[in-house]
Amino acid sequence: PRPDQSAPAPVGPTGSHDSRAQSGDFLTTAQGVRVPDTDHSLKAGDRGPTLLEDFHLREKITHFDHERIPERVVHARGAAAHGTFESYGSAKTVTKAGFLANRGRTTPVFVRFSTVLGSRGSADTVRDTRGFAVKFYTDEGTFDLVGNNIPVFFIQDGIKFPDVIHAGKPQPDIELPQAQSAHDSFWDFVSLHTEATHHVMWNMSDRGIPRSYRTMEGFGVHTFRLVDAEGKTSLVKFHWKPVAGVHSLVWEEAQIAAGVDPDFHRRDMADGIKAGAPLEYEFGIQVMPDDGTDTFQGIDLLDPTKLVPEELVPVQPIGKLTLDRNPTNYFAETEQVAFHTGHLVPGIEVTNDPLMQARLFSYLDTQITRLGGPNFSQLPINRPHAPVNDMLRDGMHQTAVHTGLAPYLNNTVDGGEPEVAGANDHGYVQTERVIEGRAVRANPASFDDHFTQSTMFYRSLTAIEQDHVVEAFTFELGKVFEQSIKERELAVLANVDTDLCERVAAGLGLPAPAGTPMEDVFVSPALSQIIDTPGPIA
Ligand code: HEM
Question: What are the start and end residues of every segment in region (Disordered) (predicted)?
């Protein structure tokens, strides 16, 4: 094999930092020149002025001036930890991915938890969706599962992502966040784009205010396609189940914590790890047949606003995640880590879900701005733990010193045949699939049912949990200034559950509207059965 041309120094045992950053006993400049005094600038006389000639002053201030990078456009507020994933081997029946298929195999991971809308300095316990992003450093390359703590999403097509985020981010004129102002745009958006209803139901439930990262579920949200060693495919949903169980705050606790300790979640994670109490989750999959329809019992598996109830397809455990090591440096690791839904390994493929398709474009694109050019996969936290031998060259912040004269394949200059891997040699060979149809800007009719799963979710809650949902809607909609927006959201709730709508309307002092008949909308019979059956169905 040709030499490994582009990997910088291998990742050390900590997997995370480059010790060359700080070495030697003396304080030096960036050029390694020892410094006699770092508290006084070079002045003309002891009363100044300061001399431009002071290279130590200039370097120190200049570097400081450029310490900040743009925060993430979403999920800016986050905290992370290192750990290990151990496979149970049970997924071997559906995937050839080595880190899942081999029983007992351990894979290093880095996991970043986040809120979606707040800025880097915002509070942890606000009502929001939580990011649950996992980087698996597998020996077949890096796999990222960039998930959330809510199993569905606001929108069905990624082209609306800038819109839903613009609607939810702080008010553009005075930058007050949603819940603290009469800021109407979030409720305006979700009452107009009713496919958001299911996600909003989860946000307004206790799931929107988790007690701790260690008591949160995680979901891959989209349907993925797994491929086994024989090339047989299955459709799956990924799940993280916290070993400590699912627990939430109550609203009063969340509000107090946001004021008294805005770092409540990151402190809990860091202190727990330091005290020897790792965060633990079981990894699981729901497996559906890949029969060419991309649906299961009437549920469109390409619609990210829909889940597959566990009553219909149980979650099978396939491994365990343990987070037991805090980062060494927040900036180097937590801030610079770059997750991407397109970081896939052989045995794990994507589906046609139009939300996922847009994500496949977005992450690398945004990171080129956020991390200053195209070479951020060379940063220690982003380096694969598999050998890298790409043909990517030069660019801003290139740190690899590439050798050879022919950065292209085939070549006869550097000698040797191209070493390309097929499916039997851990190569990533996409499963062939038929793609046909007219180019259209439209959703399939199977995306039209916006309410059945919202109803199912609400009716699955206990009476106390339902009370919390009613109180959350009443509180949040109570902050809305425009009455027509409140009325439109009440009309949405009328389609979810009459009792829910009436109780929120009463809380707002408004009349409760009637639901809109949805005769033309296809509803999965399996879901109707779950809604109509008290308790879990067989
Ligand atoms: C960041 C999850 C939809 C664009 C993130 C992060 C998570 C996440 C967990 C934080 C990653 C980190 O910790 O660094 C999700 C989920 C989605 C979703 C579960 C839907 C199922 C989308 C869509 C788009 C998008 C549709 C765009 C079309 C972004 C961008 C970032 C981000 C630009 C910032 C990445 C960075 O700066 O490194 N997302 N997201 N997301 N997401 Fe998503």
Answer: 1-48
CA of 141 to the centre of ligand 1 (A): 21
CB distance 161 to ligand 1 below 6 Å: yes
Position in ligand 1 atom list of the atom nearest CA 159 = 28
Q: What is the pLDDT of residues 76-85, one digit of tens each?
A: 999 999 999 9
Name every residue whose Cβ is closer than 8 Å to that of residue 375 and which is 6 or more positions away in sequence: 392, 395, 396, 397, 398, 399, 400
Sign of the torsion formed by the C-alpha atoms of 98, 334, 392 and 369: positive
Is the confidence at residue 259, as pLDDT, over 50?
yes
Positions annotated as catalytic residues are: 75, 148
Ligand 1 pocket test, candidate residues 75, 341, 355, 371, most atoms within 8 A of CB: 75
Q: Which helix (H) or strand (E) holds 508?
A: helix 498-508
pLDDT score recorded for residue 250: 97
d(Cα 274, Cα 208) in Å, to the nearest integer? 27
How many whole angstroms from 146 Cα to the centroid of ligand 1?
A: 7
CA distance 233 to 347: 9
DSSP state of 216: -
Mean local confidence (pLDDT), 253-267: 97
User: From CA 473, how far away is CA 185, in angstroms rounded?
Assistant: 15
Binding site membership of 198 for ligand 1 (Cβ less than 6 Å): no
Measured at the CA of 253, the angle between CA 151 and CA 505, to 5 degrees, comes to 70
Q: Which contiguous run of DSSP H or E holds residue 357?
A: helix 354-370
Q: Is 133 in the pocket of ligand 1 (CB under 6 A)?
A: yes
ipTM of the complex: 0.94
User: By the 8 A CB rule, do 195 and 449 touch?
Assistant: no
* pLDDT for residue 94 is more than 50: yes
For residue 131 and ligand 1, the question of a CB distance below 6 A is answered with yes
Please give the number of the atom of ligand 1 that sits closest to the Cα of 358: 28
Ligand 1 atom with the smallest distance to the CA of 361 is: 28
Supply angle C-alpha 134, 381, 242, rounded to 5. 25
What's the CA gap between 154 and 167, in Å, rounded?
12
